[in-house]
């Protein structure tokens, strides 16, 4: 049957939902312009950020060893890899990779949200589809926003010291304890890390699907991994403010002068050689 004029006009008016890569563009840019490319970028950068979150939490566990241990750990991060590179070069390289990963992760998430809305406006969404989606999936935008705001405050509080009136450069123990001694800040960290856990759960689950690991035989294992990873991060991070609030860790030093008996205090952000020799 011949195609009517109205049918031809309707087909001509339909535009593809997913934009095709522009000709003449480098392959990475063309690939990223597609929905599949954005999902892959989200997955890869998500793996990088998950690795950082895990390493950051494990490093902070030194809070439970001693004041000296976590302060030396903070100093070691600036000195790695020893004399092979100038001081803080490797640390800043890692920071730049993390900043780039975070920026790409956020941009890809925003772009995919815009594409999804264009592909399926709210007026055409079925309530059944909304109910079927998990709580973690439905709240990804909100938990992502909370984590973004939390990260900014975390930098102001424990990295730059702007939001911490008792901040001392090079003294992570003091900064952590002084910060979490404030109930409002401790509660903020608790709530933010719960949101981070929900975000990590859905992200860890979705990564496998994006990378093509989506066999029903592995779905239970994927779910257990996502649950375990999110729980590990939440329990570890939440333990720090709780430990300070209930007095599990010692209070911070009231002076910057080093005391070899109590191992309290620092000098210019690092232990001096004579102080290291004075310790038992």
Structure explained in plain terms:
The chain has 280 residues and is mainly alpha-helical. It has 12 helices and no strands. It has helices spanning 5-13, 27-32, 35-60, 67-79, 89-119, 127-132, 135-138, 140-159, 172-180, 183-210, 219-246, 273-278. Helix 3 crosses helix 5, helix 8 (140-159) packs across helix 10 and helix 10 runs antiparallel to helix 11 (219-246). The N and C termini lie far apart (95 Å).
How would you describe this structure in keywords?
mainly alpha; 12 helices; disordered C terminus
What is the strand content?
Answer: under 5%
Q: How many domains would you count in the coordinates? A: 1
Low-pLDDT runs of 5+ residues are 123-133, 267-280
- Number of DSSP-assigned strands: 0
**Can you tell me the CATH superfamily?**
Fumarate reductase/succinate dehydrogenase, transmembrane subunit
Q: State the separation between the terminal residues, measured CA to CA.
A: 95 Å
Main sheet?
none
The ordered H/E elements are HHHHHHHHHHHH
What structural class do you assign from the helix and strand content? mainly alpha
Instruction: Give average pLDDT, whole number.
Output: 81
In the CATH hierarchy, the third-tier topology is known as 3 helical TM bundles of succinate and fumarate reductases
Overall shape: it is: globular
């Amino acid at each position: 049957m011949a195609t009517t004029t109205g049918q031809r006009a309707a087909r001509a008016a339909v535009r593809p939902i997913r934009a095709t890569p522009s000709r003449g563009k480098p392959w990475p840019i063309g690939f990223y312009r597609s929905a599949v490319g954005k999902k892959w970028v989200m997955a890869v950068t998500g793996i990088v950020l998950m690795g950082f979150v895990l390493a950051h939490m494990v490093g902070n566990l030194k809070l439970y060893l001693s004041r000296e241990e976590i302060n030396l750990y903070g100093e070691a991060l600036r000195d790695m890899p020893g004399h092979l590179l100038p001081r803080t070069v490797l640390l800043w390289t890692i920071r730049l990779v993390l900043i780039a990963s975070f920026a790409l992760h956020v941009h890809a998430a925003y772009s995919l949200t815009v594409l999804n809305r264009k592909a399926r406006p709210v007026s055409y969404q079925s309530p059944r589809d909304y109910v079927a989606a998990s709580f973690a999936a439905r709240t990804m935008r909100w938990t992502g926003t909370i984590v973004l705001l939390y990260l900014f405050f975390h930098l102001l509080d424990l990295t730059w010291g702007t939001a911490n009136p008792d901040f001392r450069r090079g003294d992570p123990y003091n900064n952590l304890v002084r910060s979490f001694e404030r109930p409002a800040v401790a509660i903020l960290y608790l709530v933010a890390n719960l949101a981070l856990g929900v975000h990590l759960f859905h992200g860890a689950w979705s990564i496998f699907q994006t990378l093509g690991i989506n066999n029903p035989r592995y779905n239970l294992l994927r779910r257990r991994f996502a649950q375990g990873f999110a729980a590990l991060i939440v329990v570890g991070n939440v333990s720090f403010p709780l430990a300070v609030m209930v007095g599990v860790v010692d209070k911070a030093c009231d002076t910057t002068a080093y005391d070899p008996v109590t191992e309290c205090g620092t000098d210019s952000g690092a232990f001096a050689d004579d102080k290291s020799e004075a310790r038992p």
